Input
Amino acid sequence: MRRLLFFCFIQFISVLIFGQSALLTVAEKTNYESTSRYADVISFINKLKSGSSLIKVEIFAKTTEGRDLPLLIIANPMPKKPEDLKDDKRIVIYIQANIHAGEVEGKEATLMFIRDLLKEKNPEALKNIVFLICPIFNADGNEKISPLNRTYQNGPQNGVGVRYNGQFLDLNRDAMKAESPEIKGVISNILNKWDPYVMMDCHTTDGSYHVEPTTFTWMVNPDGDNSLIAYMRDKMMPEMSGTLLNKYKVENCFYGEFNDMLAPEKGWIYDASEPRYVTNYVGLRNRLAILNENYVYADFKSRVNGCYCLIKSLTDYLNLHKDEIKNMLREVDQKTVSRGLNPAVTDSFTIEYKLRPVSSLVTIKTFEAELATESNGRRNYRKTDRQKNVTVPYFIDYYSVKSVKLPFAYILDTFDPQITGLLETHGIKLEKLSEMCKVEVERFNITELKGSQHLNQGHYNNTIKGSFIKDTIEFAAGTLVVRTAQPLANLAAYLLEPQTNDGLVTWNFLDRYLVPQWGFGYNPYPVYKVINKIDLKTTAIRK
Ligand SMILES: [Zn+2]
Output
């Protein structure tokens, strides 16, 4: 209490001396003993707004418990609407914090970053960058602050929020099925509307022991454009890592954990590959994404500082390379559209993949771990004081082992509003047949459909087996069509292909259509593939 009074006093003196510039986050005000509540974040934003015309706030979603989620737009000049940025020389980026509301340093770091950016009269970074920032993505989870949450985390000692949102969903598993207002909101009102070219999602690790307070990595799903994954792996991420260390003096490494805590030489692994993770999802949309994971055993102040400096390193990188990124992403979009206009025999879509190390090794400043018996009798890993540097393979290259043909178009034999609603939320262009037509298609013949034994995010995830069979089918006028000649073709294919690990089948959207009420076997899979280019007469569906 005494310490808190002391920091309040310091803050009071600072305000007297520096006025508005002394605006402090809750973390700073409490010497990193507490983190901001929702009301603190909103109050901080309002103070920033009252002191600067370079910041605007939009509400992009309302949470289950009724909280408005703020998106901060920081730009000079401020665009009236997102379309004004179409031919702008600046790059739009999106930074998101607090998706897991126990992992709180991003919330403090983003607020501090904006405050410090706006201290300059004419911020240099705003010549090149339009920042979109959501400091408190999981506001409902944040408000359940308790010192009993994440007790293994090294502060803040007065407690943090919980992982799940107001529906008990993990928002970082919801990007494909989009069942939460938070994810629906970010896709519809940020990604579709503003089309940020780079996004960063801020977290705290739970994994292996090491010295580095800050870790990060890139989007990895192999159905994203591989040239973008290579750009992140070979250029952007190593350069940002160097800046973070050399300019900002923050030790860092790429995110992962040891394959075997007791034998680090077996390698460092990043094992979250599905696009249900927000960063991988952004990769499927042909955009760059950074997963920031700050080290759970580093003290709160070091974690906030690490995240803050990573945002600065990203800003530095974009100041130098924004045109390169903008050109690259535009080319990849065009390449995706041209591929769909007339798919080649070699154009395929991965439905199964494996993991191998990338060619460069990574060095981790680790602490040796040992197995110890806890008071409850359970055996668990324990960190020792024996620090050693290991240089080991980095398992992050997800490569295709089984693929199917990428079609010219998908034809959907359903008008299910949950399915059309999901596709529209993702921004996937839907059309309808303007006349009846007979089309040569590949249809999926199901031989096995299995639900998982355990519930996952309220679902028994399906896996499906079967094969594609050529057929000629007559479709009525009005039948729905998704062409692959669109920038979001990879995302559309991931959702519609029956055998991916994160599509409509996985998340039970098609359950009622696949199994007959009586009898045996399976109904036809209601999504058909038109493999080769044909003259499909369609009209666009307006939202
Ligand atoms: Zn997390």
